[in-house]
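pinging the channel bc i need a second pair of eyes. not urgent but kinda urgent?? the chain im working w is below, pasted from the shared doc
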Amino acid sequence: MGTILLFDAGNTNTKICLADEEGLGESYTLPTRPANTGDDWGLKIESILMREDVSPSDIEACVISSVVPPLDPLISHMASRFFDCQTLFAARDLPIDLINEYTRPEKVGADVLVGCYSARMTYEEKNLIVIDFGTATTLACVAENAFKGGLICPGVLSSAGALASGTAKLPKVDLAVASDALVWGKTTEECLSQGFLFGFASMIDGLVTKLSAQLKDPFVVATGGLARDIAQLSGAIDELRPDLVMEGLWMAYYNR
């Protein structure tokens, strides 16, 4: 069998990973710009393939989790023009083996479903909470083989950016964990970093506690850009899975 290209297309970035039947390979992150053309995407992907010493003719499929509808036809065009391969969108062309109990199932983000499916296939615990620290912070609840619903909260970086752009004297800062102990900041940058990281960690702890009243003893999995930093400060997160969505796309493709 050939190589597949996995895409996790989010509102801020698109993560791209090469994979085959043996598992995931190297991954790359590009900014999501739906205004770009399919050719622009194709040329960038060709550069990745050249770096990985993979021929375009080796690509048998592009498998995509997308929450950016304007991007979808661009990737489809790119797959056809550059690799002459099929394009499979998660939950639309590629079934995700979960019972979707959302009131309007078609409104659930593909990344949420794929992440939940990946966690369900990986962990034996009956109840799961899958947290994705992306442009938004999402908490998805899984009981046995059913996606029950969840929560959508502000994203860490998007919140920090909104605060900086909406105030005259608060700068954008690099959010980094300096210590596991909360201390008051003595510079504006320290105040912002401590406030955001410990604030979001406390939000996660509180929300998991409240969700646990309905979802007994959940196993909590975290993925996304700042998952590692928040997990250092949160007592609720049991495990980090940086490639959770990629793993789910890979599983869905080879289990179809």
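so The mean pLDDT is 91. and The CA atoms of residues 156 and 240 lie 17 Å apart. — does that match what u expected or am i reading it wrong
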